[in-house]
Design goal:
The structure is a single chain. It contains 22 helices and 8 strands. The protein is α/β, with parallel strands linked by helices and 461 residues long. Helix 10 links the parallel strand 6 and strand 7. The chain is globular. The chain binds adenosine-5'-diphosphate and magnesium ion (MG).
């Protein structure tokens, strides 16, 4: 390696470290330690960022869930990078699981005070700071019923969109139940899968099962992540049955109702629906304002200097950031930080300026179907050909554009997008996005076409 390349790679490795901390902030500790912390920088090769991962499984998981976000973030630091590749450092000893040279994995298993890498219940997420309104009163009532009367509904299944308070409710239930039950386990489904796969590799499956099966209350967050991988589903299902049969309470959250979990076996779905299924919805304006006022109070007590946020600003935030409480609170925190530093009142126009990134991001409700219809009519091709497996450029290109726009304009994951294009693989979607990005750089006309379609979509809503 020439000196120059090695210097460049050193600098880049710093960029990677910086990016790692953004990932921690973005996804939280649980996801971060499960999947992303162990990813290390390898090198830059032309326009590709090459990263090291420990196993094939982790690579697949990252590609399916986080790779595109990592790429987006990395591009902000270095716009030359247009793709990510992974180098798998699978150790030879994984072929021989009896070998005892796998310390680095053991260490991970027993972090969090020997609790087998389970997530801790977050003491800050309690019902005292949970604002109840129309959007979540059912879930709140159901939670209280099981707190008072375990097994009343088993499992209790709470579903709803991102950032609407599911994790908060689950932790609040956990915090309440810890007062009266000794073995409460809270785990995100991601963590469950990850630890399970590790326990197989470390020959510790029995221990893994024992820990879960000893729970009096098992709380599983984001169950949509238990999918694919048949062994893990199978294990999940057995654990689940064993617990219900032994009278333990299960509480589950998910981003969708059980019947819409498309890659989970039917018998698991019907088990999941066997207790009580309730949803949380987006809060209305009044509830959003209440949540923000509660935050103001907290901010007021926490800050050394008194900061007061005008109702006008609160109403503005509550009005603009409707879809996710998490985003709304994020926006609020930015304003609060600004006020804390600058110590003066701000106008709505200034607030708008401070929040410009989050405000632009809200892309309304464009669906993949809207995108497909618009692209098909723009290029005047038939929907049938468009969705078929034909590869001639006249349909393949529009298909790639539609995939690209689906990634840009919706919040769907790569595998989800693939499925909406007649069950294509997520790698096909990645390829399409790359292709469109390349062509947009090379060919001005092409770029204009994509922008045109983008414009039509945003105008139609
Ligand atoms: P989800 O798990 O549904 O994605 P979270 O539970 O992580 O959402 O909620 C996102 C943020 O919004 C958290 O900071 C949470 O404390 C806060 N939050 C959600 N719902 C409420 C509520 N009803 N009252 C107060 N804060 C809430
Ligand atoms: Mg959550």
């Amino acid at each position: 390696m020439s000196n120059q390349t090695s210097l460049k790679n050193n600098l880049t490795s710093e960029k990677w470290d910086a990016l790692q901390s953004s990932l921690l902030g973005l996804y939280g500790k649980d996801v971060y330690t499960s999947w992303l912390q162990g990813v290390t920088f390898n090198k830059i090769n032309f326009n590709a960022l090459i990263l090291n991962v420990k196993t094939r499984f982790i690579r697949d998981w990252i590609v399916a869930h986080y790779a595109d976000k990592i790429l987006d973030l990395y591009k902000k630091q270095d716009s030359n990078i247009s793709r990510i590749e992974f180098q798998i450092l699978e150790r030879t000893e994984t072929k021989n699981p009896k070998s005892n040279v796998i310390d680095f994995e053991k260490k991970d298993l027993v972090q969090d005070s020997g609790s087998y890498g389970l997530s801790k219940i977050d003491e800050r997420l309690v019902f005292d700071n949970f604002v109840v309104g129309k959007s979540n009163e059912l879930a709140f009532a159901a939670a209280n019923r099981i707190i008072d009367n375990l097994n009343k509904y088993n499992p209790l299944y709470i579903y709803g969109g991102v950032g609407l308070g599911k994790t908060h409710i689950l932790n609040a239930i956990g915090n309440q139940l810890l007062k009266k039950v000794d073995k409460v386990i809270y785990v995100s489904a991601e963590r469950f899968m990850y630890q399970f796969v590790r326990s197989i590799k470390n020959n510790e499956v029995v221990k893994f099962k024992d820990i879960f099966r000893s729970a009096k209350v098992l709380i599983i967050d984001d169950i949509q992540f238990v999918s694919g991988k048949d062994v893990t589903q199978e294990e999940f299902f057995h654990t689940f049955n064993a617990l219900i049969e032994s009278g333990s309470q299960i509480v589950i959250s998910c981003d969708r109702p059980p019947n819409e979990l498309d890659r989970i076996q039917d018998r698991i779905k019907s088990r999941l629906s066997g207790g009580l299924v309730v949803d949380v919805q987006s809060p209305d304006f009044e509830q959003r304002v209440k949540i923000l006022k509660q935050r103001c109070l907290k901010e007021f007590h926490a800050s050394e200097r008194n900061i007061i946020i005008d109702d006008e600003i609160i109403n503005f935030i509550a009005n603009e950031l409707k879809l996710s409480i998490r985003e709304m609170i994020g926006a609020f925190n930015r304003i609060a930080a600004y006020l804390n530093i600058n110590q003066r009142k701000i106008s709505v126009a200034e607030a708008k300026h401070i929040l410009r990134d989050s405000l632009n991001k809200i892309h309304t409700n464009i669906t993949i179907e809207d995108i497909q219809k618009t692209v098909v009519s723009y290029y005047n091709i038939s929907m049938h050909d468009f969705m078929s497996s034909r590869r001639s450029r006249s349909v393949a290109r529009p298909r790639q554009i539609a995939m690209y726009l689906a990634k840009k304009m919706t919040t769907k994951s790569l595998p989800d997008i693939g499925r909406n294009f007649s069950g294509r693989d997520h790698t096909t979607v990645i390829h399409a996005i790359k292709k469109v990005e390349e062509l947009m750089i090379q060919d001005k006309n092409f770029e204009n076409e994509v922008k045109d379609i983008n414009g039509k979509l945003t105008k139609s809503i």
